[in-house]
Amino acid sequence: MISKLLHKIDGLTADERDKLQDKLLEQVSEEVKLDVSYIIVLLSSTIITTLGLLTNSTAVVIGGMLIAPIFWPIMGLTLSTITTRRHLLNKSAISILISIGLVLLISSSVSMIIPFSGVTEEIRQRTNPTLLDLLIALSVSVIAVAAIYYPKISTTATGVAVSIALLPPLCVSGIGLALMDFDIFWNSFLLFGANVGAIVFAGVVTLYLLRFRPKRKEEKERLRIGIIFSILFLFLLSIPLTIYFRDSIAQSRIHEEITNELNSQFMDITEDSRVETVITQNFSTLDDSIKVQATVFLPEGFYITNAQQEEIIQSLSEKTGKTIDLQLNLVTTLLLRKEEDENIKSLNREIEIFIARELEALNSGIVINDTIINYPENFSDNGGVIEILLSLKDFGDTQITFDQKQNLEERIKVYVNNEVELNIELVPIRKLSQPSDLVKLEASINNVLGQDLNFIDNNIDIGELIVVNSENNGKGNVVSVTAQIYVPAEVDTATIDKATLETHLSEEVEETVELELQIIRVEKI
């Protein structure tokens, strides 16, 4: 029934089919040749596609795929499998192998020569192959083979469709070689291999249904062997692809849970917060921990305490069932302030200085971790109770009694001539003991330094930050910090006291900090 239907659609006799088959075999055999034009187009498309991947430009990646000639060797492999033409099979296989070697060589060379900021989204998309990619490759193969029978289907469009499944992941493998990252190389090469196997297999099946078949008995036997090997190859590839597919679904679900929970937690702190760029690094469902990086925009004057950060981590762990390694990049956003707001900002600073002086007189061993001051709405007009959360570092022997707390509260009331509610929390201090603590140390230094510099001038930004934690016989642990800071031309650099910043950082991380500032002047645009 299928045979009659196809015959009716095509309107070709058996002899006409044989002539068409021979003609197409000759055409594909000619296109598979590794001549100068093929090499030039292959190298050009590889360079363009690699640059698109490195610069995260989808348009450039598509531009590289439009001229990629790798479509023809794949078609040669497909046709030679169904017709068992050994010469075409050998020529196509050699062409594919040489093409793979050239693409890997050129893409890795371009990646080592051209500076780029890291793994882009275009690269990342090709490092997580799943069964969906296999289905796409199967569909592409059907389109490619259909172009043989139906002239209305452009062979150029077919070539682009195949190139989409082949060239970008192969270029990503070359980038993985340049980065010496085995995961990137293997995952993208697995995607490439799965696409090749799926395209050849689906092409063979489609051609067979369209009655592209071997003529001699021994050729038919070789065809059966070829199909069996193709099925076995696809089955073996489907095993890791199924695992990746399961992990991809789990990663997507957990990423959404983490993003929603972070938004909820920071909205509780202030409704003006905004969570952006949440990155959950690739992980397996078998992993017990997840590294999370998040950029959070907080209004000027809002910070989070260590206790609040621990609560966020605990909440994320409960939501995901995983151990969360959270790195927060807190960015202070500026709000247009009225004169009353500026008065409150000045009062904030006065209260902080007063509290620091009072605690120093009470006990010189007390170290302030953070001071958060909240004012009621319309404070300037209606007054109200000022809420102060004082976060102190607890080294295991920090002593502050309830009477001392009450006395401090009363003294603050007198100082500001207003009702005050003082709450004190103790933040346990733990020494660095694991390699992963270096990440937390960098985040802590970045946050503290950013807050100190913003206090000097809100337009000062931190660029590259290098933190090295090492042993020093004379000083114990020494944390060397090299920071690039971008300072507007109108800001007097004399206001940036390196010694004060160094002292504050040392108090925060409980280690000796040696700070080197690289000041870069910037002009207003």
Automatic annotation (TrEMBL):
The keyword Transmembrane helix applies. Pfam families: DUF389. InterPro entries: DUF389 (IPR005240). It comes from the Bacteria. The keyword Secreted does not apply. Keywords: Membrane, Transmembrane, Transmembrane helix. The chain crosses the membrane at residues 36-54, 60-82, 94-118, 130-150, 157-179, 185-210, 222-245. This is TIGR00341 family protein. It comes from Candidatus Dojkabacteria bacterium.
